[in-house]
Amino acid sequence: MSISFSKALGIHEQALGFRAQRAEVLANNIANADTPNFKARDLDFASVLASQAQRQVGGGTSLERTRWQHFDADGVELADPALRFRNPHHASIDQNSVDLQVEQSHYAENAVQFQASFTLLNNKFKGLVTALRGE
């Protein structure tokens, strides 16, 4: 009998990856808080979860060549549907949509959620090791 890590870990592995990606996006927003015309972005967890579920089922988005005049789409990456622009709470003179306090609070919240996912995965691995040792 073999251990299936995908069944044992569930979606927590992908959630940890999502939290790491979101930290990068939020850090980019904070770094560009004073850049004129910069638009704040954020990742939508529900979209990422839906795309992961679609991949596991075997669906997903694919490009199909319907006419001979169309370009071949092999190797073309589609834009990430989960990465969205954030609506600003108030307009700024330089058209920058980053609100530094909001970004910092989202970053802190994401860090707490990352730590929670990491702790959960760590406990799952400890449980698997205990099961393998027969303790």
TrEMBL record:
Record's GO cellular component terms: bacterial-type flagellum basal body, rod
Pfam families linked to this entry: Flg_bb_rod
UniProt xrefs under InterPro entries: Flag_bb_rod_N, Flagellar_basal_body_rod_CS, FlgB
Annotated localization: Bacterial flagellum basal body
Keyword list, A-Z: Bacterial flagellum, Cell projection, Cilium, Flagellum
Domain of life of the organism encoding this protein: Bacteria
Transcription among keywords: no
Domain Flagellar basal body rod protein N-terminal: 12-39
KW Transmembrane (keyword) present: no
Listed GO biological process terms: bacterial-type flagellum-dependent swarming motility
Similarity comment: family membership: Belongs to the flagella basal body rod proteins family.
Reported function: Structural component of flagellum, the bacterial motility apparatus. Part of the rod structure of flagellar basal body.
The protein's assembly and partners: The basal body constitutes a major portion of the flagellar organelle and consists of a number of rings mounted on a central rod.
Protein's name in the database: Flagellar basal body rod protein FlgB
